Fold this protein.
Amino acid sequence: MSGFGGLLRAEWVKLRSVNRWLLTLFGAAVLTIGISLLGANGSSTDVNEKPNFVIGPAGTAVADAFAFVHQPVTGDVTLTVKVGSLVPQDEPDERDSRDGKMTKLKDPSPWKGAFAGLMIKDGTQSGASYAAVSVSSENGVRLQSDFHTDIAGKSSTAPQWLRLTRTGNVVTAYQSADGGSWQKIGEVTPAHLPATAEIGFYVSSSPTLYVSRGAGGSSVAARTTLATGTFDNVTMTGATAAAWQTEAVKQPQDDEILQKKGMPEVTAFSESGGTYTVTGIGRIGPEDVGDDPVESSLLGVIAGIMALIAVGVLFATSEYRRGMIRTTFAAEPRRGRVLAAKAVVLGGVAFVLSLVGVVAGYLIARPALRKNGFAPPAFPDESITDPVVIRVLVLSAAFMALLTVFAMAVGLLLRHSAGAITLTIVLVILPIIVGSILPGTVLPKLLMYATLAGGMATQRAKPPSQTLAEPWSLIGPWAGLSVVAAYTAVALGLAWWSLRRRDV
Amino acid sequence: METSIEVRDLRKRYRGATAVDGLSFTVRAGEVTGFIGPNGAGKSTTMRLILGLDAADGGTARVGGADYRTLRAPLTHVGALLDPGAVHPGRRGRDHLLWMAHSNGIPRKRVDEVLDQVGLASAAKRRAGTYSLGMQQRLGIAAALLGDPPVLLLDEPVNGLDPDGIVWIRGLLRSLAAEGRVVLVSSHLMSELEDTADHLIIIGRGKLVADTSVAKLLAAASKDRVEVRTTQRTEAMTVLANAGATVSITGADTVIVEGLAAEGIGGLLTEGGVPFSELRRHRATLEEAYMELTRSSVEFTAAPAGGEA
């Protein structure tokens, strides 16, 4: 009695006993590594030398610019304020530019938009440790700290009462609709809060980003925006109140940018009858420099795929040369089991070799990228043991393996090597080209959700982005892999259906 | 499992052309059964239908009482040689047998045993693409023998073998039958099976032409013909024709007489004063018998020059 295990061993012997296939399979791993290294040597960045960011407490790139009305306070303190209003700058959804029509970037980030609220900060230096509770123009009330911690309060808008309490190193935030009943939002512990910290109220306003994609590239334009907030009922307990000072917290490069754009330094502050009006520009939050160095260290995947597709197709079509398929089906008349065994063996071997390729490729290419400028602070060092890097490597190998099995199924359906290889490669490459050329984000995104090219998203460590030229950056890695898995399942289903029906 | 191949009313059409047309026969164990017919008569199609590779349009083909497609580890029930070229040219001969063995749970040592048995042990590690036609044929026979099956189906196994190989395969077929196996061997050349087959299934245009033992077929084809050797052919013909026999000339000093017993012929010739040196029963060759049977069913009538048909 022979089980499915026997069939697996049989298909494994078939696969390993043809030297040319073995060479091509190993060639896929070598190509993945080699092209990754070549790609890494060919790309460089000067983002760290000409930064438009500051370094946050965690050593990463951050944005930190806003209007701050503050005073130094030593020790524990509680500051309460009513945010009377927050008026962000209204920006159109589309703009015309030299690059053609640009669309406002829809960014779900909680760091985006205009903010008015309370802050305690380690001085007024841009990039210094802080905690802030504020009303935002787009995401309700937020408690945020040190450019990475974000706690959602209620989705209220101004007018809203806010309270910030410092107890030792811990900062607690509350909100209230009427100044009478208070709800706690949460607690944060900023990395560095000195005994004497600056406390006060602030207004920030993120620039509005406009993107145009298409014709093989993408361009992003940032429009500086203003926001105005009003504050009243300012009360501070636990400290002796001093005079409020006004300051525009700025990044070193902000002056230059504002000058170049011919904009005045707009940080207005006025007080009338206990009501303070503050106008601010600038953004507080993590800074994403766009490039994904993990993805950039895996440029060889697309080359490895080509070799794998060829083996996948030949593993299927060779059965039809000289009628070998008759021997195969005489040895196991249950054809579905033969198909399953072929898919498992080929997919397993392709996965292992792809994993070797992407792991080695990453380990070799990433240090080369680091040498070429993809280094901290703009590009924090990640480790191969980081969950996100493991995800990228495993999903990329899974993408390559699924594609190999897909190619095999196409080979069984078409029974023609050149046709099957061409069709599979076209199904991967053509959507990438078309997706790069198509304008906007909607059509390219749909294209990625609908074709094998979506699988390229497995190589991205960063979240989906609308600002990059490569169309697969529009979708997430799991979505991309699911598309390829669905294609493979359908192709295997069709191959099974056709094998059952056809004479051989 | 009872060892036999039973084909009942089998039908198969390919794109409008009938390949097998209501074929029925039974192949029994313990003898070599020749499966004979001109090229295109439907032999290979019938074998593919028996092996479940092609689906029949009607009728049944059962091996040992079962549909081939329901067999588990089928190589241990039925060994088949369909196309000796059906090996990946880049694959070593031994690996070709090894994957087949794995797929049916056949122990690895059987691979070396059958390689020895067919005389390929020394070439086992060579790639099949470097094999001669005869070596490919031997590898295909090794594959058929791999599962030590009680039923063997061999499609044109003699093709491409050298004279040594032909002697070898004849001995192999006889000994496999002597072990009580079902041995069905197809050929388009009756002469190939002259001294090998015990029983014959002859088909033409997808239909059964004859299902007979070799002995009966020869006896029927020989009828009561007598060969007469004489130096006076004309006189002999006159004497015998006058007595009502049909006489035909077959050589410079031989005639064949049909319709008279040998004793009567001797008497008539002596009476008529015709000298003769030999009188013997004419024994037809298998080839002659076959030609006679299939003449009507050759798919494409041979050109006047006449091929082997």
In short: Chain A has two domains: 4-45+291-501, 54-286. The first strand of chain A starts at residue 54 and ends at 55.
